[in-house]
Amino acid sequence: MTQRISIDPVTRLEGHGKIEIFLDDQGNVANSYFQIPELRGFERFVVGRPIEEMPLLTNRICGVCPEAHHMAAAKAADAVYHVDPPRTGKMLRELLYSAFYCTDHTTHFYALGGPDFVMGPDAPVAERNILGVIHKVGLEIGGKVIQMRKYGHNVVEMIGGRKVHPCTSIPGGITKGITEEQRKEIEEMGRWAIEFAQFSLKLFNDIVLSNKSYVDLILGDVYTHRTYYMGLVDGNNKVNFYDGKVRVADPNGKEFVKYEPKDYAQHVAEHVEPWTYLKFPYLKNVGWKGFVDGIDSGIYMATPLSRLNAADGMATPLAQEQYDKFYATLGGKPVHQRLAIHWARLIELLYAAERWVELVTDPEITSPNVHTKPTQKPTEGIGIVEAPRGTLTHHYWTDELGRVTKANLIVGTTNNYAPIQMSTKKAAESLIKDGNVNEGLLNMVEMAFRAYDPCFGCATHSLPGQMPLEITIRDADGNPLEVLKQFC
Q: If DSSP codes are grouped into helix, strand and coil, which group holds residue 247?
């Protein structure tokens, strides 16, 4: 008789999800599904609204990465009006974005992913959290984490108008610049952020890389898949979060394609399954072959590790040193081990902090020339940035008055849904044998998705035409009385 194991809800992620594991008669995994039960409808209810509202509306998709949606929507609005912001306007956007990256990557490493390594996958569940991490590493380090987040949000407020859900990016640039006094304050915080990023990498080195069992876990087959890798790169093929071309590397590490954001639809298609609200993007010119990896499968990943695999290096010196160490330690490019995403995330944290200081010390950063007035009729536009958890695409079509008639969003986590499904299934198959299941093993199944830092709060955003729905009616003791279904 088939046995069903539910990990519901999965923990330490943004949004909600559950893992359903089905065992066969021998107690081994017959199948596994990573299901996303929530639904949001942003692609529908932005229709009819002015395009200039998109940076304000879409950043309400969630409270974790509103800055990413603000920037992608603003760049798409630039494209809709065929307007190019002045250099200072672009730099201020990227400066805000770099500070945001530091806060976001800090949150995931210390509060979401870090407990698995700092406390250990078998630690009691009551200790496997941010409080357990602070108890183990000390209050002083906990204070540094809070300080990093405070500084990042301070910069977002100075440039973006609010600590969360920024509101200053508009078609053609940004609504206000910064003063010299603000510049000095931002520079001081940025230099502190560089030291914090270096400290975090040392902490990772001391706790994780010096522990053989952790290194074996990272390099083992349980959390390994050979897929394509996606990320934005600058003109020198170095990692960039705000601007550039999308580059895809194949499972052997060779460039498969590099394209302008406006051409994304020529390269990315979306597959749907009846058991989840989330879509499965894949490389159109390779094709959807199911949940399998390898060079013949169009499944790709878009994470910090993907960005490092897709690029030729980092654009700042300290991050480049860590990039070289990363590949020297893990056997060269590309790295396929999913738990290495945590390490790649810290290298990106250092890059973001360095880029923060580069931008704020540019002689033109306090120029008042921050906006170019749009003069052309609005039509259609696409904006792409790298959200912390993957390549983020906003695509809008408008009428001649600039009102949105159609929208398509491919959110960072959406890119990674197929790899996450494969990773959780492979972890379950590898760890659950002969019916032996315990809480520690189930947490190790969760670790397979947690490395991706998924955000399902903003990844589910479109109705597929039908509304799959299952309702279970239970009595006062929780026993199922009746199950009602539609389109599932």
A: strand
* β-bridge partners, 397: 380, 406
User: Which residue(s) pair with 18 in the sheet?
Assistant: 35
Buried b (16+ CB within 10 A) or exposed e, 57-77: bbbebbebbbbbbbbbbbbbb
What does residue 87 show for φ and ψ, rounded to 5 degrees? Answer: -55, -45
Backbone angles phi, psi at 98, to 5 degrees: -65, -40
Amino acid at 396: Y
Residue 481: its H or E element: strand 480-486
Cα separations (Å) of 403 from 45, 53, 77, 81, 463? 12, 10, 11, 12, 21
Q: What angle do CA 326, 329, 332 make, to 5 degrees?
A: 75
For the chain, the residue count is: 488
Residue with tokens 């974005």: 97
What is the tens place of the pLDDT at every residue in 369-382?
Answer: 999 999 999 999 99
Provide mean pLDDT across the span 386-400: 96
Which residues have a Cβ under 8 Å from the Cβ of 385 and sit 6 or more positions away?
Answer: 68, 71, 72, 75, 97, 232, 241, 242, 243, 392
Task: Tell me the C-alpha to C-alpha distance, in Å, between residue 212 and each of 137, 219, 220, 280.
Answer: 19, 10, 12, 35
Distance of CA 160 to the CA centre of its chain: 21
Cα distance between residue 270 and residue 278, in whole Å: 10
- pLDDT surpassing 90 at residue 485: no
The amino acid sitting at 404 is V
Show the tokens assigned to 221.
Answer: 């087959």
Grouping H, G, I as helix, E, B as strand and the rest as coil, residue 231 is: strand
Q: Where are the beta strands (DSSP E) in 275-403?
A: 280-283, 300-301, 380-387, 390-398
CA–CA gap between residue 296 and residue 464 (Å, rounded): 27
Cα torsion through 388, 391, 397, 398, rounded to 10 = 20
Q: Which residue has the tokens 């357990």?
A: 132
Cα separation, 383 vs 77, whole angstroms: 8
Instruction: Provide the pLDDT confidence category of residue 467 given band limits of 50, 70 and 90.
Output: very low
Bridge pairing between strands 169-170 and 18-23 = unpaired
Can you name the residues that pair with 169 across neighbouring β-strands? 174
**Please, what sign has the CA dihedral across residues 245, 251, 255, 256?**
negative
For the record, the structure tokens of 328 come out as 């020297």
| CB count in 10 Å sphere of residue 80 | 27
- How far apart (Å, rounded) are the C-alpha atoms in residues 157 and 164? 7
Cβ distance 93 to 101 under 8 Å? no
